[in-house]
Amino acid sequence: MASAVERTDDLVREYLIYRGFTSTLKLLDSEIKTDKEKGSRVDKIIDQLQQLIQSYDLTGLKEYWAYLDRRLFSRLEDVYRPTVNKLRTSLYRFYIIHTVQVLQNILRKTSFFFLDLRITSLKAKHYKSKNSEKKNDSDPDTQTEALSDQTDSTNQTRVCEVGGASVEQPFIKLSQEEYIEHHSSIMHCRVDCSGRRVASLDVDGVVKVWAFNPIMQTKATIMSKSPLLSLEWAAKPDRLLLLGSGVGTVKLYDTDAKKNLYEMTIDNIHPRILSLACSPSGTSFVCSAAAPAAQSGVLMEGEARVSPPVSGQLLLWDTKTVKQQLQFALEPGPVAINCTAFNHNGNLLVTGAADGMIRLFDMQRYESALSWKAHDGEVYSVEFSYDENTVFSIGEDGKFVQWNIHRSGVKESEYLLSQDAVGPFVLSGYSGYKQVQVPRGRLFAFDSEGKHVLTCSSNGGNIYRLNKADVGLESVLCLGGHKAPVVTVDWCSAMDCGICLTASMDGKIKLSTLLAQKP
C-alpha cells in the first residue's frame, strides 16, 4: 500500500510537469512534506519521530503521537493496546535519554569553559597579589581587605559548584490531562484493576465511567434517584462496579452492558454505605453501613459540623449469591467504619473507624485479629504497605502514621500533614461563601514499589518519598494543575507509565502520566 501511494505521487508529479502546472506541483510537494501519515510508510514515520526527538520538540512529538494514536492505533484491536503503550513509553524514554545526554555534554563543556576562566582569574590575582605585596607590607588593613575579597570569591565558587550539581528525580511528569464531565465536588475517583477505566462519583450522586487510553472518553453515566456515597471496582470480573447508597442499598453495575445487574438491600437501620472493598481472591465484598447523619458530607458557611454517629455495622456479602455471608463483631461496640482495605490475597482486612480505632480482621477465620487506638478523632483513610507488614493511616488529627501489624499499636513512623492533605476541605467563593467537605475518598496512594506516596493538596497532588520517622517526608514532585482543593487521589501502576489521579472540589479530575526514573 505504501509503495502504491509513492508510485501514485510520482505519476501525479510527472503529469503536473507535463502540463506545466508548476505552482500546483510546488503545493503538492509542500503538502507531502507536511503529511503526518507519510503515505503510511513506516520508515517515513520513524524519520519524522526521530527528527522531532533530535530537535528537542517535545510538544511536536506529543502532538504527532496523539495524531498517530487517533488515526492509526485507536483502530487496532484491544489485544495490541499494551504494545502501543510500550511503544509510547519507549519513545518518551528515548527523548529523555537523548536530551539528557546532550545536556550533559553542554554542561561538561560549560564547566571546562568556566574552569579555564577561573584559572586565568586566579593567575591574574596571583600576579596582582605579588605586585602589591611589597606595597602593603606596612598596611595591615589593606591585607585584610585582600584576604576578604579572596575568601568571598572562593565561597561564591563553591556555591556555584554545589548549585550546578543535578539531583535525579524519581519521576518525570510526561503529561497531564483534565476530565471535566462532573459539575460538582468529587467524592471518589478510582482506577480499575486493569488500569484501563476510571470511575468517579460527585456529591450530586452522578457516576462517570471513563477511559483515558488512547483518548479521554466517557463510557457510561450513572444517575441514581437515591444519593450515592461510595464506589468500588470488583476484582473478578473487573467490568463490574459496586455503588453504595444513602438508603441502605448496594448496586452492582455492569460497565460494559451499561445496566444495573441487581440491587442488594444491606441494612435499613444503618442506611449510609460509607465504604466498599472487594476481595482480590473471590466474589465477596465488605461494606460499612452507618446510621443516618444529621449533616451531609458538604456543609455551607455558618453550618456547624456534627460528629458522625457512632452506630454502624461491617458486613460481608457475595456478589454471586447476592446474599449476606456474615456480620463482623466490632469491639468495644458498633461503630461507623469510614474506610476499608484488603491485602493482596484477601486474607487480611484493615478498617478505620469514626472512634479513631484501626481494626485488623483475619478473613480466613472471619474474626478480629488486632485493634488499637490510632488517632484522636476519626480515621479517614487506611492502606496496607507494600510488604504488608505495616499499615498506613490518616486521621482527623492531621497525622500520617505507619503501624506494625505484628505488634498492636506500635508506630513505625509518624508524620504531620497540613489540613490541605487531611481535610476538612474548604472551597471559598464570592461574598464570603464557603463550602466544606469532610473526607470521603482515598486520601493517599502508593506507587508500585511502595517507596513513594501521593497525597492531596490545595492545588494538586504531592508526591513524597517515604523515609524514616526522624527524616520525615521528602517532597519529590508537585503535580499541580488544580484551582480548587484536591479531595481524593489514586495511583495506578498497571501500565508501563504510572497514572496519578487527583480530583478536586470544582469537579475537575487531573490525570498525570509519570515516567519512573530507575536508578
From TrEMBL:
InterPro entries: ARMC9_CTLH-like_dom, WD40/YVTN_repeat-like_dom_sf, WD40_repeat_dom_sf, WD40_rpt, WDR91
Domain ARMC9 CTLH-like intervals: 47-104
WD repeats: 330-371, 372-413
Keywords assigned by UniProt, alphabetized: Endosome, WD repeat
GO biological process, one term: negative regulation of phosphatidylinositol 3-kinase/protein kinase B signal transduction
Xref: SUPFAM superfamilies: WD40 repeat-like (SSF50978)
Molecular function as annotated in GO: phosphatidylinositol 3-kinase inhibitor activity
Highest taxon listed in the record's lineage: Eukaryota
UniProt main location, coarse: membrane
Localisation per UniProt entry: Early endosome membrane; Late endosome membrane
Chain residue ranges for the region called Disordered: 128-156
Family: Belongs to the WD repeat WDR91 family.
Any one of the GO CC terms: late endosome membrane
Residue stretches of biased makeup (Polar residues): 141-156
PROSITE patterns: WD_REPEATS_2 (PS50082)
Protein name: WD repeat-containing protein 91
Membrane topology: Peripheral membrane protein
Signal peptide: none
Organism: Cyprinus carpio (Common carp)
